[in-house]
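Lab notebook, bench 4. Continuing the backlog of folding jobs that were queued last week. Each job is logged with the same field layout so the records can be merged later without manual cleanup. Today's entry covers ATPase, a 180-residue chain. Filled in by technician R.K.

JOB TYPE: sequence-to-structure
TARGET: ATPase
LENGTH: 180
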Amino acid sequence: MTGGKTMHVILSGCSGGGKSTLLAELARRGYATVPEPGRRIVQREQRSGGRALPWVDLAAFAREAVAMARADRAALTADAGPVFFDRGLIDAAVALEAATGAPVSETLAGDPPFHRTVFLTPPWRALFASDGERQHGFDEARAEYERLRAAFPALGYETVVLPEAGVAARADLVLEALGL
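JOB STATUS: finished
OUTPUT FIELD FOLLOWS
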């Protein structure tokens, strides 16, 4: 906890950079976690035949991700303690800006800030793999990472780029940086 408020910490960065694996390790260690909205939206849209898929309609996908990320955050209790988000609201706002030009700052207007330290997973070719829910290639993932790497500092967040290391070492680094 910081300042008597719940600590909401973002894990962001490249698709296929190890965020979900890191989130699972933090959950294994007893921390509250929130899974990535994007994967949940893709699964739902594929089941229902929907079109809010990043490779079909990126704007609709990003709008859905913004809404889901807000709902995820609203569902948390005030005493949840540290909560780690696999992507979330800011990532969705950055995707919406890429798709429509809607400024990230306008999309986020009125939303409470997250913890000022954001952890980024950079492009890591050894981990990256396309699948039925991630249909873009490594170059697109790298471009996504560069957008996020620029967006967080522009919004006043401090970024920590996680090294190419095992999941336990990455989790240790995150927890140490946060004083947990």
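OBSERVATION: The mean pLDDT is 87.
SIGNED: R.K.
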